[in-house]
Structure formats: structure tokens, C-alpha cells
């Protein structure tokens, strides 16, 4: 009874202090959101949307209306060649996406990404100008090999993917990875970036989690592993620090979602002019492995 006599006054104390609190949250004006990528040997792709308020309801109609149309978008290389990007629509699973890519009908220059290369993205949208610079870097981190090991997860046998990477002697190399399972799309890992702060100039081995669809509810107990019989392709990319900063902070925010003890995270974009998002260059390598049954 001593324990009970202690808790009852505490409960009464907190119940006596109850008070309804109403907080008026400000409605922020929409901001331009940029998702731009440029890979070696490929043409650039840029997706432009307007941001939504944190407590906005999400419906297919609202998402469709978030795309920004009729923007003026160009990419300039180090030789001052200017490529105009034109908006096109992509139908995918009954959903329309709008992407800015090279204009094959106009007379502007067209070029694919080179290693190394420096590229400037310029956007005029909503009567505002935005700009960002990225690099497609040299292969400071080299993907040497991939393999798999068996692991027991609950009552089933799964496969864990491993990689061997060699880092160049100079500090300041950054990477990001994606995996593809069979014919599924490439997906980034829950923590998709790596840097050479602790492994500079060495050859190191690390486990690699399977990529995840971040639009779906995560299952932390099984998401990291592959099934026996899977054909797995690893897409490993060298990136610059600005691209690494963006995905490092975004991955942290995603993994902290719902954790009341996590600190607020500022997403570090690299687009000037007040836009959110990033413009990132990727130097890409691929390796494929079959996980035997």
C-alpha cells in the first residue's frame, strides 16, 4: 500500500494541472523544391515542386498540383555551353510525374555528364531566380567487390550484402549507394551516404543494407536484408560534399521521424535563392551479384 499511497497524490497533482492548450501554427508560403541529378554519361534530370505545409493532407490530387510548370531551366558546363531543359510528363503506375530534361527539339547544346565536371543549374520559376553548382567528382572511393553472407532473421534465412571499397589518399571523398532487387527500381538505403573521415586512404569492408522505399512504412527488422534467390545490383556513386550534406541530413531526419527524443534536423540544401532541395552530381559504378538459394 505504500507504493499506491505515493502514486495517487502524484496523479491528482497532474490531473489538477491539466489545461487545454491551443497553438496557432503559422501557414508558411510555398517554397520551390528542387530535386536535380546529373550522372556521368547521362543527361540531367530536374524535378520542381512547391512545398506543402507540415500538417497538410496528402492526396494524389494535391501531389499532382505541387509540380511547377513552365519554368525556365538551364544547365551550364565549365566551358560555358548552355543546355536548355524542357518539361516532359512521365506516366508511372497511374501517376503523372513532370521532369525537366534536355530539349531535343530546340537548338541549344546537349551534353552528358563527364568525370570530373562542374555544372551550374539555373532556374526561373514563380518570377524568382535560383542557382546551384555541383560537381561530378573523380572516383575518390572505388568499389572493388561485393559479396553476401547468410544471416538468421527471426525464423528465416536472409542474405546480408557486403562491399569492399578503396579510398584515395586525400581526404574529402564522399559516396552514396542504391540497391536494386531483381527488376525492381534502384532504392537508396536508410543511411545511404558514406565519407572517408575514418577510413581515409584505406581499403575497407562494410555491410550494406538493402535500399528501401521511403514512402512505405519501414520494417527495421527485415528491411536491411535480401532474400535467397535475389539478383542484386549495387549502384555506388561518388558525390561532392554538398550532395553528401543534403542526403546525410535528410536520411537522419527520416530515421528520426516519430522519435520524441531526437533533435530537430535542418536539411542542408545547396540551391540559392530561397529554394529547398539540391542539385547533385553522381559518378556511378555498378556491380551485380546473384544470391544462391
Description:
With 293 residues, the chain is mostly beta strands. It folds into two domains: 32-136, Immunoglobulin-like; 141-245 and 283-290, Immunoglobulin-like. The protein contains three helices and 14 strands. The chain has helices spanning 2-16, 60-66, 241-256, and strands spanning 32-39, 45-50, 72-76, 82-92, 95-102, 117-125, 128-136, 141-153, 156-167, 174-181, 187-195, 203-208, 231-239, 276-290. Strand 6 (117-125) and strand 7 (128-136) form a beta hairpin. InterPro entries: DUF4249.
Count of extended strands: 14
**Main sheet overview:** 6 strands, mixed
CATH architecture of the largest domain: Sandwich
The structure class reads mainly beta
Helix content bin? 10-25%
The fraction of residues in strands falls at: 35-45%
Instruction: State the end-to-end distance.
Output: 60 Å
Q: What is the average per-residue confidence, as pLDDT, rounded to a whole number? A: 88
Give the helices and strands as they follow along the chain: HEEHEEEEEEEEEEEHE
Radius of gyration: 23 Å
In CATH, the topology of the largest domain is named Immunoglobulin-like
- The strand order across the widest sheet is 2-1-14-13-10-11
Low-pLDDT sequence parts: 1-16
How many helical elements? 3
**CATH top level class name of the largest domain:** Mainly Beta
Morphology:
globular
Integer count of domains? 2
Organism: Chitinophaga arvensicola
Protein name: DUF4249 domain-containing protein
InterPro entries: DUF4249
Amino acid at each position: 500500500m505504500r507504493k499506491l499511497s505515493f502514486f495517487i497524490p502524484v496523479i491528482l497533482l497532474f490531473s489538477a494541472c491539466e489545461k487545454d492548450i491551443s497553438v496557432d501554427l503559422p501557414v508558411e508560403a510555398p517554397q520551390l523544391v528542387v530535386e536535380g541529378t546529373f550522372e556521368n554519361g547521362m543527361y540531367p534530370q530536374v524535378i520542381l515542386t512547391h512545398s506543402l505545409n507540415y500538417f497538410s493532407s496528402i492526396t494524389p490530387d494535391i501531389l499532382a498540383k505541387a509540380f511547377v510548370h513552365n519554368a525556365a531551366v538551364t544547365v551550364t558546363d565549365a566551358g560555358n555551353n548552355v543546355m536548355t531543359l524542357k518539361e516532359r510528363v512521365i506516366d508511372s503506375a497511374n501517376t503523372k510525374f513532370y521532369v525537366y530534361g534536355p530539349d531535343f527539339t530546340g537548338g541549344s547544346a546537349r551534353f552528358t555528364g563527364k568525370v570530373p565536371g562542374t555544372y551550374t543549374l539555373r532556374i526561373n520559376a514563380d518570377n524568382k531566380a535560383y542557382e546551384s553548382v555541383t560537381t561530378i567528382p573523380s572516383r575518390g572511393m572505388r568499389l572493388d567487390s561485393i559479396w553476401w553472407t547468410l544471416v538468421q532473421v527471426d525464423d528465416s534465412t536472409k542474405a546480408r550484402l557486403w562491399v569492399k571499397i578503396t579510398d584515395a589518399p586525400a581526404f574529402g571523398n564522399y559516396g552514396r549507394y542504391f540497391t536494386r532487387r531483381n527488376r525492381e527500381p534502384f532504392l537508396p538505403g536508410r543511411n545511404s551516404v558514406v565519407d572517408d573521415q575514418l577510413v581515409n586512404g584505406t581499403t575497407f569492408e562494410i555491410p550494406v543494407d538493402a535500399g528501401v522505399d521511403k514512402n512505405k512504412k519501414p520494417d527495421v527488422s527485415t528491411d536491411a536484408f535480401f532474400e535467397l534467390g535475389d539478383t542484386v545490383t549495387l549502384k555506388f556513386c561518388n558525390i561532392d560534399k554538398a550532395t553528401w550534406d543534403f542526403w546525410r541530413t535528410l536520411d537522419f531526419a527520416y530515421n528520426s521521424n516519430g522519435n520524441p527524443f531526437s533533435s530537430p534536423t535542418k536539411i542542408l540544401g545547396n540551391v540559392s535563392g530561397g529554394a529547398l532541395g539540391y542539385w547533385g552530381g553522381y559518378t556511378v559504378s555498378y556491380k551485380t551479384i546473384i544470391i544462391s538459394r
